[in-house]
Model the fold of this input.
Amino acid sequence: MSKELRTVSGMRPTGPLHLGHYFGVLKNWVELQHTEEAYFFVADWHALTSDYADPSRVRENIRDMVLDWVAAGLDPEKCVIFRQSEVKEHAELSLLLSMITPVSWLERNPTYKEQQQQITTKDLGNAGFLCYPVLMAADILMYRPHGVPVGEDQLPHLELTREIARRFNHFYGALFPEPLAMLTPAAKCPGLDGRKMSKSYNNGIFLSDPMADISQKIRGMFTDPARLRKSDPGNPSVCNLFPYHEILSSIAEREDIRQGCTGAQLGCVDCKKIFLKNLEAFLAPLQERRASFAARPSAVTDILLAGNDRARAFALQTMSAVREKMGL
Done:
């Protein structure tokens, strides 16, 4: 298939990936690699905007994350997988775009305000954290994509990227497209405790978890808070587990579970056993692919080296055009 459309996205290497990452991001990336010229990058500079004080795990996290990516189905032959910090042109473009970006645009960024209020264990008063939307704009605009896969919570970031592209084109002449939002369908993947699944909450089911560990986690997973006994009728609509049946179980199984739960014939333990069966069937091929890549010590390095070269080749073309437009 001829890939006339181009897209780009990235992820910060801050720890192992969980089911929420897969169904919220990776599943969409895997599909896009077949229809678009796709660039997916390890955003290690972005990780430093908040974790600058202790970067000791960044390299290990990069390896683990790329292993999770290829386990999920990303194919280095069908997409470009690269490391942001190895394509130095990203830093140059970020610097040049910062020259035309008003500080007020950055200060009004809702994520900037929210995270400063919510994350009290880290000092986020650094310039890198304030300016990370400019770096994000550089990451995207470097590859001049027609669209970017995002969730609804990331729309403000993408709109800022569009504004920066518009401002550059106004000052120097048309170069950057204003990328459209390719909204990723929302996937409800609650954490084990009912909150959002998150590494920071330690409530996740991780793609690389052994099934023995997952089984133990699922045994203690919250379900319907009002259902104390099997004889109590349940409500799948408020159950913490049922969203996973909607993702992983067959239509027939879902209907049986719904009827058994509301009719007090199927207990939560039995419901969890069905989930574990389907989850194991889903994770087995992913973990097999992961193990095959992990068995080769240089596999991740080779993937990134090849991807870095391909990304850099495109970035050099973009920066040549940027410098010419800006008279540098």
Summary: The CA atoms of residues 111 and 154 lie 9 Å apart. The chain has two domains: 6-188+297-326, 211-290.
